[in-house]
Amino acid sequence: MTERKIIVPGEIIVSGDEYLPGEGTEKNGNDIIALKYGLSEESNNLVKVIPLSGAYSARRGNVVIGKVESINFNGWVLDIGAADTAFLSLMEVPRYVNKDALEEVLKIGDMAVLKIWSINKRGVDLSLKQRGLGKIEQGLIVNINANKVPRVIGKEGSMIKLIKDETGCNITVGQNGFIWITGKDIGSELFAKKAIEFIEKKSSSPGLTEEVEKFLKENKK
Amino acid sequence: MAEFKRPDGRKVTEMRETSAKVGVIKNADGSAMFQTGKTIAIAAVYGPKKMHPQHSQNPAKGTLRCNYNMMSFSVTDRIRPGPSRRSTEISKITEWALEPALDLEKYPNMVVDVHISILQADAGTRCAGINAASLALAHAGIPMRDLVTSISIGKLDKTLVVDLDKKEEDFEEGEGPTDIPISMTGGKITHLQLDGKINGAQLKEGLKMAKDACDEIYEIQKKALKEATQ
Q1: Residues of A in contact with B147 (CB under 8 A)
Q2: What average pLDDT does the segment B51-78 reach?
Q3: Can you list the domains of chain A with their CATH numbers?
Q4: Could you tell me the end-to-end alpha-carbon distance of chain A, in angstroms, rounded to an integer?
Q5: Which residues of B touch A6 (CB under 8 A)?
Q6: pTM for the predicted model, two decimal places
Q7: Has domain B18-222 been given CATH number 3.40.50.280?
Q8: Do B143 and A54 touch (CB under 8 A)?
């Protein structure tokens, strides 16, 4: 893997016959050209661009946090911050649902942790059938830029584990940038929120884990 | 050609001092500011999102929707806020200038909204708006083949100059002023307007000047994007 660098649309990332265009790139003759603004990455001759900013784009398998927008006769329409509307079908709820009273499971305005199990032409299909998914009953929701989510989670979850340990809160990170915090009191929840906002602000600095560690130690009361 | 004296002492091919910044509006998906001399434009991009009303959805590809707006305080005499005949026209022109560079095939039935606000106007606002919008679109992660750059070429009496300001736009001697805003992407023209009179040979020369100026702006835009994360 070569070093990552910031790429502007239209810029030639690499030239050569052996390279293949991946996500966010295009092949033009011998050159691989960026179609998006972001970091370029190359592995096994596959070149791709990792976006740095912009709206969330849904991917299969993502765990997201959504808000119920409306209720149909056979499911719920949720807002997950993506361009497509997201649909949770009755069949994807792991319990008996009375078809006349969908509100008993999720009301309009309720939030839930869900998983994207398929993306098709009509939009995104969500599921609640897995451990850790379900309606959010209490706690705090923080919204950050979806592209900063990997930084909040850290390498193999190191960053999120650090915040969890230091604040004593339970944190669920949705890939769409919504983060759900539950703690024993509002003080620790707000502390965890502050830490996450700190990461979002400093997301591009190297040695972020140490910095966050210092921040947590300094601000802990 | 006799040495031509510009009101602010610039060389014929010299642009005003230009700067760009990315990420100026926190709540937008992408945003940018572009400044040339006393002209300041900011652009905010929202989307891609579902197009409403539904009848204007395009199932083949995504739509680009631009909105150009001059702030009421942007000029010396306050202008009436809200859309005008001029701003509607420039919105449309901006759409046409940016569209060829964008790749919206992956966003059927969706719309990308671009809102351009002119904070301070000293001629060349549509060019500044297009430059800012192009940066904001890139910042929003919209797939595009290249950045779009825009510059206005002027003809004062018989001399071609780059990047007119308001004083030069009101030039009254000889043949008077001619204003030619040009937008380019990857060396190709996406937008060209002509306000005044010019002959073919001189237009060709003007295009060459525009290309050089656009290359200069491209570097400024590139720098702004690369520095945004540092």
Answers
A1: 8-10
A2: 94
A3: 5-51 (2.40.50.100), 63-135 (2.40.50.140), 140-219 (3.30.1370.10)
A4: 43
A5: 225-226, 229
A6: 0.90
A7: no
A8: no
